[in-house]
Amino acid sequence: MRTKFLFLAIAILAVTAVMAQEQGNCVTNVILSGYSERAFTDEAVTDRQLELILQCGIKAPSARNLQPWKFTVIRDEATMKEAINNVVAGNVLIIVSGKVAENGSTPDFDCGLATESMFVAAHSLGLGARIYGMPIGKINAQRDLFLIPEGYKAVTVLRIGNTDKSVDATTAATPRKSAEEIINYKK
Fold first, then answer.
1. Of 2, 3, 94, 165, which sits 20 to 30 A from 57 (CA to CA)?
2. Is residue 186 part of a domain?
3. In this structure, are 158 and 120 located in the same domain?
4. Is residue 175 part of a domain?
5. Which domain holds residue 18?
6. Is it the case that residue 22 has pLDDT exceeding 80?
């Protein structure tokens, strides 16, 4: 009886694993269902959520494993509004700053990878996230206010927060380009 149960359990796990590969997995599902939210609530991001998101940024890949980034976490609403007008209490901004480039390093690209890792992590936790590039000039001009370390420049801003679930942003979102418009195959 035990052998039959064990065999059945192994068979179920094998079928589940194959189905997961065919239908995607939690990571691909998060990536394929994610979008850049605009409607956030004032429900606060928890310390635990923020810590996990930051850990995902730290673990991002970088050229030659230089990890040329610094993360500045801003929860103060007044300071956030200096960078982005429509933030609400409860949101968190993470300014990703990159080391000023040295002989062939790629800090801007590496900071983009760290930002994307945190973006995906936020979505996996059921939070909303949006990546900004536009306020970077303003942030770099006010380095002291935004705590940009010496020898670094702000590269991206990641906004994280709880989203207004009543907003149907998915159907209102700008459609993605088709695969045929983007992918070239050389056979």
1. 165
2. no
3. yes
4. no
5. 1-33
6. no
Q: What is the pTM of this model?
A: 0.81
Strand order in the sheet with 92-99: 69-74, 92-99, 152-161, 128-132
DSSP letter for each residue of 21-78: HHH--HHHHHHHH------B-SPPPPHHHHHHHHHHHHTS--GGG---EEEEEE--HH
Contact, 110 vs 119, CB < 8 A? no
Mean pLDDT taken over the chain: 85
Amino acid at 72: T
pLDDT digits 0-9 by tens, 90-120: 999 999 999 987 676 789 999 999 999 999 9
- Report the amino acid identity of residue 63: A
> 183 lies in a domain?
no
Same domain, 18 and 75: no
In single-letter form, the type of residue at position 70 comes to K
